[in-house]
Design a protein that fits this description.
One of its GO terms (molecular function) is cysteine-type peptidase activity. By secondary structure, the chain is of the alpha+beta class. The chain contains two helices and five strands, in the order ββαββαβ. The chain has a single domain, classed as Alpha-Beta Plaits, CATH 3.30.70.
């Protein structure tokens, strides 16, 4: 199961997320649910780095299947991308509730 936690401030801005685990929908290397989640996560991190001037930090551990991402500065560009990520992952979680869970942690 892939567990994703979004860190959200009281003003509803997303300041980070943590994803851990494999979806377990299919055989490793051919799991379309895990691949879908990974693509959304990595694309969001890359987009924030390349398309915004906002600072972020992250750690990726392929062996443990974890991504820990934090915004150092929050702006409109990163918020649009992070809200889009959240929406996409919620869609996957709705379609595959036994493989992906979304949690919200207020910070």
């Amino acid at each position: 199961m892939t567990n994703i936690t979004f860190y959200i401030k009281s003003d509803k801005s997303i300041i980070g997320f943590k994803s851990k685990g494999h979806a377990g929908f299919g055989v490793r290397g051919t799991d379309v649910v895990c691949a879908s989640v990974s693509i959304l996560l990595i694309n969001t991190v890359n987009s924030i780095e390349k398309l915004t001037s906002e600072e972020c930090s992250y750690k990726i551990n392929d062996r443990r299947a974890t991504i820990d991402f934090q915004m150092d500065t929050v702006g409109d560009g990163s918020q649009l991308l992070l809200q889009s990520l959240k929406m996409g992952l919620e869609g996957i979680a709705d379609g595959y509730p036994g493989n992906v869970t979304i949690n919200i942690e207020e910070v």
